[in-house]
Amino acid sequence: MTEKQKMFCDEYLSNGLNATQAYLAVYKSVKSPSVASVCSTKLLRKASVKSYIDKRMGEIHNEKTADIAEVMEFFTSSMRGQLKDEVLTMEGSIKEVRISSRDRLKAAESLAKAHGLFEKNVNISVDLPIFGGEDELQD
User: Fold this and answer.
1) CB 57 within 8 A of CB 74
2) Could you tell me the pTM of the whole model?
3) How many Å from the N-terminal Cα to the C-terminal Cα in the chain?
4) Which residues contact 56 (CB under 8 A, 6 or more apart)?
5) How far apart are CA 6 and CA 2, in angstroms?
6) Which residue of 4, 32, 74, 87 is most buried, as measured by CB atoms within 10 A?
7) What DSSP element (H or E) covers 105?
8) For residues 23 and 35, is the Cβ–Cβ distance under 8 A?
9) How does residue 116 score in pLDDT terms, banded at 50, 70 and 90?
10) DSSP 93
11) What is the three-class DSSP state of 98?
């Protein structure tokens, strides 16, 4: 793996996984975003690049990073109204209140999407009898 490929990977990870922008940032001779897109896609398919990105992602992910279970627990507690928010009262004091129904609904929608409840693709399979020919139709 070359030094430029490592730089590309690090830029890719630091810019929010935008491969085209990472490629343009590292390979200065490339000016066209469409060329950068094609080249970055080819680069991301290389085994050494994939391996390096996976290794770096593992280093980045630590105990401070929320995993999927923690995110789901947060959405669940939000949906159930278990979270509190702070609001400023007219008297100038801060009061804790349950989060709004709008926020609870948003959490419920996020949970539903995570569980695939809003999938639009519906596959229906039906077994239909197949008739042979005119002989069968006359019986």
Assistant:
1) no
2) 0.47
3) 73
4) 9, 10, 13
5) 6
6) 74
7) helix 101-114
8) no
9) confident
10) -
11) strand
- CA–CA dist 107, 54 (Å, integer): 30
DSSP tag of 28: T
Measured distance CA(30)–CA(25) in Å, rounded = 9
The Cα–Cα gap between 70 and 64 comes to: 11
- Beta-strand relationship, 84-88 and 94-98: antiparallel
Domain boundaries, the chain: 3-60, 68-114
pLDDT in tens, 55-73: 988 887 766 677 778 888 9
Task: Tell me how far apart the alpha carbons of residues 135 and 102 are, in angstroms, rounded to a whole number.
Answer: 65
Question: What is the distance between the alpha carbons of residues 86 and 92, in angstroms, rounded to a whole number?
Answer: 12
CA–CA distance, 107 with 74 (Å, rounded to integer): 9
Phi, psi (deg, nearest 5) at residue 8? -60, -45
Average pLDDT, the chain: 86
Distance from C-alpha of 112 to C-alpha of 114, rounded to nearest angstrom: 5
